[in-house]
Amino acid sequence: MHTLVGWHVEMEFQEEGDRTRAAAMVRLTDGTEFRAHGTANRHPSDPEQLRVGEEIAGARALMDLASQLLQKAHTEIDEVSGRTSHSLR
Known about the structure:
Elements: E1 9-16, E2 19-27, E3 33-41, H1 50-81
Antiparallel strand pairs: 1-2, 2-3
């Protein structure tokens, strides 16, 4: 099997008190860039675990990124096929 394309997703996190924010970015080989964000809020009674906040915020950002990529793919399918495609979310 040969690798035809590789994507690198960049993730950055920002911690502010009980809130964690994640920003994700991917650049496709056609030059398209997608950016997405996710947040996590720690309940005041929960122990401070920065890694957990990053995992939740990061996962939400990646879900947003995945949704954008699906939309792009379906738009391209529709343009070529002349019909409306439906994503499996």
